[in-house]
Amino acid sequence: MTVTPRRKNRPFLLRPPLIEWIRVALVHAEHRCSPIVDSDDVRQTARQLLPGLDCEPRQLKLEYCLQSFKCLGAEAASMKFQMDLGFKMLSCGRADLIHTATQLLGAQGVDTMDDQGMTPLMYAASGGDEALVQMLINAGANLDFCSVRNPSVHPSSRHWVALTFAVLHSHLSVTQLLLEAGADVEGAVLLDGRENSAETPLQLAAAAGHYEMVSLLLNHGADPLLRMHHGSSLPSPLYEEMNCFSYAAAHGHRNVLRRLLLQPQQRKEDILSLEEILAEGVEETPIPMGFPVPDCSKAIPKLCKARMKALQQAAYYSAEHGYLDITMELREMGVPWRLHIWLESLRRAQQLSRDEVIISLLTEFRSIRSEDYTPELVSKGIPLMFNMLENSKDYVITKRLASVISHCYGFSAVPAIPPIDVTQSTQLDLHFLNNREMSDVTFMVNGRPFFAHRVLLMSVSERYDSFVCLSTLPAATLCVSPQTMMRSLYCGGTEGLTVSLSEARKLLPAARFFQLTGLQRYCEIKVSQSLTLDNAVDIYHTTGDLYRFCEGFFLKNMEQLLSREDFHRLLFCASGQEQFCTRTGKWYSLGLDQNQDGLLKNLEAALINRLYFLHTGCRE
C-alpha cells in the first residue's frame, strides 16, 4: 500500500498583516452601509490581498441595500427610498421615466447627489454607458457639476466631474460625447479662475498613458501646463506642483510626452511668477535641439521658459522613477542637467550596464554649474564614481570618470606644503663642520671618518644619542652625503641651503629617520615643486610623507596620468582585478598592495575634503 505524503506547502508564503485585513474588510462593510463585518466581507478582502485566490465576487442582495435604513428616522428613510428609486429609474436608461424620476429626486433633479457624492451622470460616465450619458445630457444634466464639500467624498476626488470619471475609466467615446456636449475640458479644476487640488482629466490620461485620450483632450483645448496644487509650502521637489509632463514622465509614457510637446502654446507662458523667477535665477535656458517624433511630420515648437521649467520637472520625475530613456530624451531637447537628475541617471545607467549612456552622462558633467553642487555630490556622487572607476573594464568610461574627477577637484593649484619655522637652541660655526679640532665624536661613513660634536647632535635629535656611542651612522643614511645633512645642523636651519631634486629625494629619508623636522619639510617642499607627470608615481612610492600633496596632484591630473602604465598599476593595485594597459592594449591582473586601504579610497577621501573646502553648497 502506497501512502501519499501530505503536502505541507503553504499556498501563500507571506500573508498580509492582520491590521491590513481589518482595514480592507471595514471598507467593504462601509460600502454596503453595514456596521458589522460578515464572512463575505472577509472573502472579498481575500480576493484583494491574496493574488490568484478564486473567490466569488459579492452578489448584491436586498438585505444589503436595506441595512442603512435601520438607523434612520421615518422621514429620512422615506426620502432615501425616493432617492434610490429615482436613481434606479434614471439608471435603467428609459427616457419616459425621466420626468417621474426628477420628481422623486426633488429640486436638484438629475443633478442630485447620493450619499457617496455621485450624480447619475457620474455613474453613467464611469460605467461607460454612452446611451445613458446622452439621455442625461438631453435631460439637462449639469456637465460640470462636482461636489466641493461633501464629507462622503474623498478629498482627492472632491472636485471630479463626469468627464473626470470617464477619463479615469478610459471610456474614450463617453469622453468625446461629453466634450462635444460642452463639458469643460479641465473638469472642475478652475473654480472662480483659481486652480484647486484636483487632477485635471488630461493629467489622469497622461498618467495612465492613454495616447488617444490625451490627443482627444488636447484637441479640445486642454492645457498641459495646468498644475495640481498639493497645498504644501515645503520647497522640496517631492512637493512640487505636478503637471501633465511630470505625470507622463513619472510613469514612463514616452509617446504621451511627445504628444504633449506637440500641443501649440495657448497663453503667454513666458510670464513667470515671482517665486518661479527667484527659483530660476539668472540662468539662461539653452536653445532646445530637435526632438524626434515617430510617424509624425510636425515639428515641435520652440520651448518657452514655462514649458522648459515643466520639462525640467519632468526630467526629475523620470530620473526618480528610473526611466532613463525619457531623461536622456529630454536632455536631447536642451533641458539642462541638475545634479540630482544627473546622479540618478548615472546610477540607473550603471545598473542597466548602458555603457553608451554612461559615457554620454560623464561627458556632459561639465555642463552642471559648480554653484549647483549639493551635499548629495559628496555623499552619493563621489562614492558612486569611484566605485565605477574601480570596477569598470571599459577604458573609455575610465577616462571619462577621470576627467569628471579632475573637474570636481578644480582648476586651481594643489595646495602647497606650508613651511615650518624650527629654531635650534644650539648651533656652531661652519668652520667646525667635519673639522678634527674640538671634535668629540667621530663617525665612520663608508670607511672614512666624519668629525662631529656631541653637544650639537644631542640638542637637535634624540635619535643621535643611540649612534654617538657606536660611532657609526645607520645604513639608511649612507645614500646621502653626511656633509649636506650636517650643514643644516651647524647653520641652525635650512636658510641658504641649496640642494638639487635628486639630493632632496636622497636627503629626505635621512631627515625623517633622524627626526630633523626643518630639514624634512625643506626637502618635501623641494620635491613637491618638482613634481611632474613623469616622476609623480616614483615620488609617491619613495617619499610617503608627501602623500597628501601627491594625491592632490593625482586628482588634478588623473586623466593625463591614466595613459601611464605605472599610474594604472598604482591606482588599481588594491582592487585585485584586471585593468587595461594602454601601451600593450591588453588587460592584465593586478595584485594586492601592502596598503590595505588602497589609493582609490585615499583619493576619494581627499576629493571629498577638497569639495568641502571649495564649495559651500556641499557643506549645507
Automatic annotation (TrEMBL):
The ANK repeat ranges on this chain: 116-148, 197-229
Start and end residues of each BTB domain: 439-468
Source organism superkingdom: Eukaryota
Keywords for the protein's UniProt record, in alphabetical order: ANK repeat
Gene3D superfamilies with a match to the protein in the record: Ankyrin repeat-containing domain, Potassium Channel Kv1.1, Chain A
The keyword Transmembrane is annotated on this UniProt entry: no
InterPro entries cross-referenced by the UniProt entry: Ankyrin-BTB/POZ_domain, Ankyrin_rpt, Ankyrin_rpt-contain_sf, BTB/POZ_dom, SKP1/BTB/POZ_sf
Pfam families named among the record's database cross-references: Ank, Ank_2, BTB
Name listed for the protein in its UniProt record: Ankyrin repeat and BTB domain containing 2
Biological source species: Hippocampus comes (Tiger tail seahorse)
